[in-house]
Structures are given as structure tokens and as C-alpha cells.
Amino acid sequence: MLWNLSLEGQMKKNKSSMSQLEQVLKSGRFAITSELNPPDSADPEDVNRAAMILAGFCDGINAVDASGANCHMSSMSICALLTRVGYEPVYQISCRDRNRIAIQGDILGAAAMGVRNLLCITGDDVSAGDQPGAKPVFDFDSIQLLRTAQMMRDERVFLSGRKITSELPLFLGAAANPFVLPYDWRPKRLAKKIAAGAQFIQTQYCFDVERFREYMRQVRDMGLHEQVYILVGVGPLRSYRAANFMRTKVPGIVIPDEIMDRVKKTPKERQQAEGKKICVEIIQQVREIEGVAGVHIMAYRQEELVTEIVQEAGLLPRR
Amino acid sequence: MVLEWIYDLTYALLKPFKKFLKPNSFAEKAMISIEKVGKGVVFDCQMCGQCILHSTGMVCSMNCPKNLRNGPCGGVRLNGHCEVKPEQTCVWVKIYEGSLASPKYGSEIMWIQPPVDRTLQDSSSWVNLLHGIDQKMKTVWQTQDEKDALEPIFRGSNEKE
Ligand code: SF4
Fold first, then answer.
1. Cα-to-centroid distance, A34 and ligand 1 (Å)
2. Nearest CA to ligand 1 atom 1
3. Ligand 1 site, CB within 6 A
4. A6 pLDDT higher than 50
5. How far apart are CA A127 and CA A15, in angstroms?
6. Which end of chain A is more exposed for a tag (fewer CB within 10 A), N or C?
7. Per-residue confidence at A14, pLDDT binned at 50, 70, 90?
8. Whose CA is nearest to atom 6 of ligand 1?
9. Which numbered atom of ligand 1 lies nearest the CA of B66?
10. What is the C-alpha separation between A55 and A81, in angstroms, rounded?
């Protein structure tokens, strides 16, 4: 094993966060997180309705931060609504829209509202979204953001060295994309993220199980699977058209030809069912891979399907 | 790699002149012009004033449209091109290859680079380096122990392939 002992010491320093997601992962149970599609409204019921479906079997609900650089209700406000009713959000912070001053302030505010899970991501570029003329910020990168959050929690200081006057119980997460180049760099980048503070990982959509297996083999060789909880990103393809859009327009999503063909060959009215079936199969396959701690289900505008997916993948009963 | 060697040489040449190469001095202005032209031509230098070229495979990471200093984003295209600028190769794909080809400093790609100090934009990174200005942070960003633990990972898992 290449992993140096001093880094393990670093990991043990991370304090407990009172996060339910952390408890589930620590107990060794297979964890499920999902994503709440952020509404284009100012109606709290839109959030509550979606959350009610997911909360039944999810250990954490991601409040996404304008994913794809499209404008929606902010992740911070979704977290506020979720914590109000006692759900467990995963607060997603991207580096695209805010600078270090705003982000550090938001981390404190989120923790004050009862948010216990933070997901630190770089974020898609503004050019991917509906307002490509916006100013991209990227003051931090995701690893700098992680380290800053870790420092705020463990050393109780801001980046400037100024003191933070309370506990900051947080469970820190990051994203990983094993499906894009350079493949050999991806496990090394994971090592960097762990060192910078990541305790759990949610991956990009996994459609290429073989590639993922290879990635996990490298991760295990480096002993990283014992340092971090890895949740595999999965999700149902809604139709051939949607799959094609994801594949060509959404950065970082890789869908192998076999899967595209399989959906294409299916008659239009059954494509959604086929997409769901593929998702269930992928969950069952990745579940068997050593070092996988759970799944992260992303069902854009198909929340009702998540229940069926969880059921058909044999992940029930949950509690 | 020859660029690593040039880096070492430049450092050795400049070090005795630390006294003269003060921030905001005439000498710094001269250095700025030299860096702009020299590093500009060779590396498409963005003059961030806190050069980490030798830790990033002698490829300037500030040419990444997201200014990432710790590794590639998740948007790299299947052909290795950039998510934001599809016509160019991802800067970090080049950095990774450059690092593998840099025997001396290559594994510094594993260091956790601190956030960019935006006040140093357009100042001389050599002057900043000689005077430690590019490393002034009031918090401990990364310990030497952690760097030592991370560096072997870079080449380690590669040997196995
Ligand atoms: S694809 Fe590469 S160059 Fe483009 S934004 Fe991402 S890391 Fe930077």
C-alpha cells in the first residue's frame, strides 16, 4: 500500500458531525442519496413535495447549486426549507458563482441552520447554462474549497486566520468523475481530495461499469476505499432524446454506445421503462464492487421513479 | 526535462540578486517585462504573480478557463479537450503528461495549491518567490508531512501499470 500513515492520522482528526448520512455510512449500511430538482418557483411546496418522496428512503438529499449553470432556486434556500421540516440535506457548493468571502459565510450559515453535509464541487462552466454571458467566478477550486471547509471546522479559523467562535460540525464531501480523461490521474486526484478533507464522494453518472470497475481497482490498490465512502452516481435515462442530450450537451457525462443502442432500439413509449431497467441493473452491478458504500440517484424531473428504482434494485426495506 | 533544468538555473542565477530584486522596485518592473515576454511566449503565461509552473508539469494552469490549480474538472471531453473551449486540449491533460515527464518536480502535482492571491496579478513571480511573498498565508495551508505523504502516490500507482 502506498498510503502513508501520516495521512491516515489526518483523516482521524476529522471530528464527528452528527450527520445522519455519516452515521449510516459508518455503520456499514448501504447508503442512498438522491437529488432534489430545484424548482423554478418561489413556492416552498415545490420543494416539500419532492423532498417528501425522497426522504422515505434517502439518507441525504442533495440541494444542487445551479447544476449545468442553469438558474434555479439556490441550494442554500433549499437547505433552509429542508432543515425546517427535519430532512437531511447535502448542501452543494460550487466554485462557479461565489468568491471565497461569500462561500465561507455560507458555510457558517448553513451549519447554523442544521446542515451537516457539505458537497464541494468545481461546478460546470457558465457556458453550459442558460445565461452564458454571466461572469464565471472560480475564485476557489474544489480542492481549495474542501481544505478551507476542513480548516474552518478543525482549526476553527477563516482563511485569514480570524477565529470562528463556535463548533462547526460538518461531514465533508466531494465529487469524482472516473469516466473522463486522464483516467490514471482520477484515483490520484481522489487521494488529493481525501487529503484536503473529503470524507464521502458522490461520483458522476456511472453508465460504463467496466471503466468504473477499473477505477475502483486502482482506488483499492492505493487503499483509498478505506479512507473515504464512495457513493456511485446513477440515474434513469428518460428517452433516447434525453440520453443524447446528456451525452452531448451536459459536461462530463459519458454514455457508452451499447447503452445508447439499447435505448434507441426500444420503441419510444417503452424507452423510459428501459432507462429505469438499465439504472436498476447498474445499481446491482456496482453494489457488488468492493469499496462501494452506496449510490447517489439522480433522476432529473423523474423523482417518482426513484422509489421504484430503489425497490426494484432490492434496496428496501431501509430502516 | 530540460525545462526543469532551466528553472533551477534561473533560480540559481537570480538568487544572489535578491537585494536588488525588491517588490515595486525598478528592477521588478524590468523583471515583469522579461517574464511577460519570456514566459508569455513559452508558456502563454497569465502573470498571476505566484508561479507554480514547475509543480504543474511546466504547463501554465492559469490557462484553464476555470483557473484550476489542483487538477482537472470533471468536464474533460472524451477526446481530451476542454469542456469550456472544445477547440483546445484540456490544460490539465497537458499538465498530467508534463508532470509524468518531469523527473524532478513532477510529483509536486500532488501538492494542495492554496487559493490564488489576486493582488499579485501582473507582478513578478520571481521577485515574489525570492521574497516569499507568494507564500504568505496566515493559516497553515499544507504541512510538509502531508506533501511528503502525497507525493509518492503520483508515481507509485503508475508503476503498477
Ligand atoms: S476541461 Fe480542463 S482546461 Fe477545461 S475547464 Fe476543465 S480542467 Fe480546465
1. 27
2. B82
3. B 64-66, 68, 72-73, 75-76, 82-84, 90-92
4. no
5. 38
6. C
7. low
8. B73
9. 5
10. 13
* Residues pairing with A117 in the sheet: A90, A171
Decide if B156 and A142 are in contact by the 8 Å CB cutoff: no
What CATH number does the domain located at A16-312 have? 3.20.20.220
A58 min Cα distance to partner chain B (Å): 25
Give me the residue from A143, A155, A177 closest to B74, CB to CB: A177
B72 alpha carbon – ligand 1 mean position (Å): 6
Q: Which residues of chain B have pLDDT under 70?
A: 134-135, 157-161
Instruction: Identify the burial level of A179 via C-beta atoms within 10 angstroms of its C-beta, where 0-12 means exposed, 13-18 middle and 19 or more buried.
Output: buried
Alpha-carbon gap, residue B66 to B75, rounded angstroms? 11
Q: Where are the domains of chain A?
A: 16-312
From B44, B46, B76, mutation site for ligand 1 pocket: most ligand atoms within 8 A of C-beta? B76
The whole-chain average pLDDT of chain A stands at: 92
Q: Is B145 exposed, middle or buried (0-12, 13-18, 19+ CB in 10 A)?
A: middle
CA of B7 to the centre of ligand 1 (A): 25
Query: Phi, psi at residue B60, to the nearest 5°?
Result: -75, 115
- Per DSSP, the residues of B5-34 read HHHHHHHHHHGGGTTTS-TTSHHHHHHHHH
Say yes or no to pLDDT of A3 above 50: no
What pLDDT, in 10s, does the model give residues A175-209? 999 999 999 999 999 999 999 999 999 999 999 99
Question: How far apart are alpha carbons A313 and A126 in whole angstroms?
Answer: 36
B82 in Cβ contact with B90 (< 8 Å): yes
